[in-house]
Amino acid sequence: MQRARSIVRKVHLWLGLGLGALFALLGLTGSALVFYQEIDAALNPSVIAESPPPTPGWKSPVWGRALATVRSQWPQRNGAWRFERTGKPGVLAARYQPPKADHHGQRIMVWLTPDGTHVLREAEWGTYAMTWIYDLHMQFQMGDVGRDVVGWTGLGMVMLLLSGFWAWWPRGSWVKALRYKRNAAPSRRLHDLHKLAGLVSMPVLFMLTLTGVMLSLPKQSDATLVSLFGPLDQTPKPRSIPQPRLPITIDHALNIAHRAMPKGRLAWVEAPGDAQGVYMVRIQQPGDPSFRFPHSYVFIDQFSGQIVGLKDRTRFGAASTINNWLHPLHDGSIGGLPLRLFLVLFGLAPTILFVTGVLRWRTRTKEAGQTALPY
């Protein structure tokens, strides 16, 4: 048993020295991203509307006006335009999705006046502060390869947390194991600070790390979920059938989607770019944990107005239901402001653990004149 504990402590030491700085970076950037929309708005006060009207709903004419505005201003952009219903009064957020773009590649973010008639701001994803931080957090600014690195590094961080807990697990008195010895030697005080910070933060950090790994490695995560809980509900990828007539309006498409899911809350509507594109309406159904990125979709042929694809999260199986909770748990949106503030605070924990762990190791090394374990 003592030999096993010694091995675990060595594993914890070298994982901490090797991955601790990355863990701290992910924690700090994650804390910033919990409020990334609010921070971005504060950094760009010119797009804050004064005395804004109520947020537009299903039947608002704003969507049609906004679509006409962006298409008139950028007629050369033949991709899809997507509009977000934030649920908050203020400027209208939109984004241009170029043909065949990846998740964030070349995406153009646009903000319009609340009535949808004027463009206030335009910026390419990744060129301004909060999206740069987002890409740093999600993929270390290295694209898809970086996303994989974040995911596999996250598995190492899971091992780091578990090995630290195992190394701490008391063999005798729990009171002694949880005590902070104020009058002890510096290395012992650093040990106690590291120990207590790790114990307090471990449940939250474990949840954040595990959900982060699953979000970063979706193929591997989905395969695991399928093997344990059954098949996933796939998002349809339908196409419109081009016809020699004008497409239906965005207002018409919203009416069709609303009739399909009358109890849902409108979250996003996407107008197609080319003749084969479809209207995509993303909806928060009752019980969906994600407010901003809900999991129900209605796809509508832009010419016939027929529903050509449907994904209803109220009918999901266990594997898809688990996936639905990953993002709202990871960013704290499921718990509103209290949980978001809570996660910001705990996002600082990896930095505290890394600093105290390194200082403890260096202090012990200096005291002993050789490489020492941090315990």
Note down, in words, how this protein is organized.
This protein has 375 residues and is an alpha+beta fold. Helix content is 51%, strand content 13%. It has an eight-stranded antiparallel β-sheet, covered by helices on one side. The longest helix is centred in the N-terminal third of the chain and has 32 residues, at 2-33. It is elongated, with a radius of gyration of 25 Å. Mean pLDDT is 92; it is low at 371-375.
In angstroms, what separates the terminal alpha carbons? 16 Å
Shape: elongated
Number of strands: 8
Secondary structural class: alpha+beta
Give the topology string: H per helix, E per strand.
HHHEEEEHHHHHHEEEEHHH
Query: What is the average of the pLDDT values?
Result: 92
* Strand-residue proportion: 5-15%
User: How helical, in percent, are the residues?
Assistant: 40-55%
* Spatial arrangement of strands, main beta sheet: 4-3-2-1-5-6-7-8
The tally of helices reads 12
Largest sheet: 8 strands, antiparallel
Low-confidence stretches: 371-375
Rg, Å, rounded: 25 Å
Structural features:
375 residues, alpha+beta, 51% helix, elongated
How does the SSE layout of this entry go?
Elements: H1 2-33, H2 36-43, H3 62-73, E1 80-84, E2 92-97, E3 108-112, E4 119-124, H4 129-139, H5 143-168, H6 174-177, H7 186-216, H8 218-229, H9 250-260, E5 265-271, E6 278-284, E7 296-301, E8 307-311, H10 318-331, H11 336-346, H12 349-368
Helix pairs in contact: 1-4, 1-5, 1-11, 1-12, 4-5, 5-7, 7-8, 7-10, 7-12, 8-10
